[in-house]
UniProtKB/TrEMBL annotation:
Keywords: Coiled coil, Membrane, Transmembrane, Transmembrane helix. It comes from the Bacteria. The chain crosses the membrane at residues 156-175, 227-251, 263-282, 294-312. InterPro entries: DUF6040 (IPR046103). The keyword Coiled coil applies. Residues 9-80 form a coiled coil. This is Uncharacterized protein. It comes from Blautia obeum. Pfam families: DUF6040. The lineage of its organism: Bacteria, Bacillati, Bacillota, Clostridia, Lachnospirales.
Length: 320
């Protein structure tokens, strides 16, 4: 209440100050006009004296008329100036009163405490037996445990149903895959190509080790040269094999981390089963359209799916 009254007084004070400034500007303009009239009057008096000396009656009469008009205008301006001074005095009195009221409101403020209602848990006094409260609390706990048990039972039932459905889909798909000659042939070809690649890589590694081990031929002692040859060969082959194995393990760990982070849900399971079912049941038709290994196609589809899920997950967190 005091703050609203103080703000209202401050607005009135600002309006009075603006009005006072406007009145002062008007007074300055009127003072300037009075000075100009005084200058004209003095010039007229000078001219009157000059005309009196020259005894020109007509000019003297005209000059007297001008002097009367100037004197009348000067009186009017003086009256306006007097009225403006009275108005300024009244405004200053109002400003002084408003300033005193504002200072009084600032120096005579008081703090008023307002009661606030706050809901608290209902409990009886210590003299009562608190029977209603204990009964209500026991009923709440019983209902809470019953609902928790129902939720847990439904969760177990849902997980069991989902597991059985996944197991049925997986076994049916595997049995159909075993009966598919095209898929079995492509699986054998895939693993045969993988074994051939590993064998070729080992051959390259051994050739590289033998090339490095040829340095030992420059040693004159045949026994020492043989030892150095086998040491260099084992070292080079071990480095290549260990490096390739570590790289494969790191790639596998990275793929598993990406699956757990972006694709560890029911959608991925449905995607794997659906793509496997499509490749198993329509393998012959796919082979007629494009001559590609079906197992490699399945892995390729999973790689594309993993990339899409990672991109969508990154886009989601970026926009969020």
């Amino acid at each position: 209440m005091n703050e609203s009254r103080e703000s209202k007084n401050a607005e009135q004070l600002e309006e009075l100050l603006l009005l006072t400034e406007e009145i002062q500007e008007e007074l300055e303009q009127k003072d300037q006009l009075i000075e100009e009239l005084k200058t004209q009057l003095s010039e007229s008096l000078t001219l009157n004296e000059k005309l009196n000396k020259e005894n020109k009656a007509g000019n003297i009469q005209a000059l007297k008329n001008d002097l009367k008009l100037a004197d009348r205008a000067l009186q009017i301006e003086k009256e306006k100036l007097r009225s403006a001074n009275v108005m300024i005095g009244e405004c200053q009195d109002k400003i002084r009163c408003l300033t005193q009221q504002r200072d009084y409101a600032r120096t005579h403020q008081k703090i008023v405490e307002i009661p606030v209602e706050k809901p608290v848990l209902y409990e009886k006094c210590e003299a009562c037996d608190r029977t209603d409260y204990q009964n209500a609390k026991a009923k709440y706990e019983t209902q809470k445990e019953r609902l928790a048990g129902q939720y847990k039972a439904k969760t177990v039932m849902f997980q069991t149903t989902l597991f059985l459905l996944a197991w049925y889909s997986l076994t049916t798909t595997l049995f159909q895959a075993v009966q598919s000659d095209v898929l079995l042939s492509d699986c054998k070809s895939f693993f045969h190509d993988a074994a051939s690649f590993i064998q070729t890589f080992i051959g390259w590694t051994i050739d590289a080790g033998q090339s490095v081990a040829q340095i030992s031929t420059k040693i004159p002692n045949a026994f020492i040269a043989g030892i150095i040859y086998w040491l260099l060969l084992i070292l080079v082959v071990g480095i290549y094999v260990a490096g390739t194995g570590i790289l494969a393990i790191l790639i596998e760990i990275k793929i598993i981390e990406l699956y757990k982070k972006n694709c560890w849900d029911v959608i991925t399971l449905l995607m794997i089963l659906t793509s496997a079912v499509v490749i198993i049941y329509f393998g012959e038709s796919i082979k007629k359209v494009m001559p590609i290994n079906l197992l490699f196609l399945l892995l390729f589809i999973q790689g594309i799916y993993l990339g899409i899920r990672c991109y969508l997950n990154t886009l989601y967190w970026t926009n969020r």
